[in-house]
Amino acid sequence: MSIKWGIISTANIAQKAVIPGIKESNTGEVLAIASRNLDNAKETAKELEIPVAYGSYEELLADSDIDAVYIPLPNHLHKEWSIKAMEAGKHVLCEKPIALNASETQEMDEASKKAGVVLVEAFMYRYHPRYQMIQELIQSGEIGEIRGIHGAFTFNNASAKENVRYKKEWGGGSLYDVGVYPISAARMILKEEPQAATVHAFFSKEHDQVDMMSSGILEFDHGVALTFDCGMWADFRNRLEILGTEGRIEVPSAFVVSQNEQDHFYVHTSKGTKEVEVPYVNQYALQADAIGQSIQKGETLPFPAKDAILNMKVLDACLTSAEERRRVEIKGG
C-alpha cells in the first residue's frame, strides 16, 4: 500500500519540487491538496493531476484517506499546523526551518511522540547519494583530517518585497531561509554539534529588518569550524567545500540540483583533480521514500525530529549573535 499524501498549501516549492518528487517516489502518491482559496486548490489540483482539492486545511486533515501531509506554509505557521496534523493522526513532512526556534520544535517532537506519528524536517539534499559518497571518501582518509568547512547559499530576490521571506514576525530572513543548509550540512558531515556561533548580518530597512545577508562561523571540536554565508540580496551561489590536510572536496551545487545542473563533485589532492560522477536522482523522491519506508516498515528515519531540535538550537544562537553582535555559546548539543 502506498503512502497517501496531502499537501497543505499551493506554495511554489510544493508545486515545482515536492509534489513531483512524491509522484516519482516508490512509496507515495499525492491524493489531495488544500488552500484557503478553493479555486487555487482546484486549479493546482487540475494542473498537477491531484484527485482531491480542499478549500481549507481543516478539511484535508479530516480526510481519513490521507496518511501523511507536507507543510510548506510560512515559517510562523509550521508549529501550529504540524501539531494539528499530528493530532489528526497524520505523519508530517514540514518545510525547513521546521519552526521559529528550538522550543517550538521540541513541542512538535512531543506532539509526534504522543500521536505516534513521524515528524521530519524537509532537507531534501541530505538524501542525495553523493553525501554518502562524500562521507565514505572522508573516512577513507583521501583528503586527510578535516580542518574546516565552508558553505554558501545566496540568491537575489530583493525586489519582491511582499514575499513572506521579508516579514520578520513570520520568520523571514536569510538565516531561516538558506543559512540552515550549510549549518545542517556541517553537522551532518562532522557528526557533532557546534559549541558556539558568531554571525554578522545586514538587516534591511526595506525588508522589515530581516537579515538579507549573514556571514558566520560555527565552532566545532578540535579547532574545526564551519564558515558560511547566506543571503537573499546577492548573486546566486550554492556551494560547499570540505578542507582537509591532504586535499579538499568541492561540491559546486551542494543543496539545490536539477537535471540541468551538475550533480558531480570534485576531489582536489596532490595527485590532481578528480571529478566524481554522480547519477542523476530526484532528491525529493528519495526524501519521500525515506519517510514512506519509515511509515510502512518501521525503519529508523535517517534524520529524526531530534536532529531538527539540534539544528534549531544552532539557528537560535546564530540569530541571537547577529542581532546582538556577539559570540553565543550553544548548550545542550
From TrEMBL:
Alphabetical list of Gene3D superfamilies matching this protein: Dihydrodipicolinate Reductase, domain 2, NAD(P)-binding Rossmann-like Domain
Residues in Gfo/Idh/MocA-like oxidoreductase N-terminal domain copies: 3-121
Keywords in alphabetical order: Oxidoreductase
GO molecular function: nucleotide binding; oxidoreductase activity
Domain GFO/IDH/MocA-like oxidoreductase: 131-250
Family to which this protein belongs: Belongs to the Gfo/Idh/MocA family.
Protein name in the entry: Predicted dehydrogenase
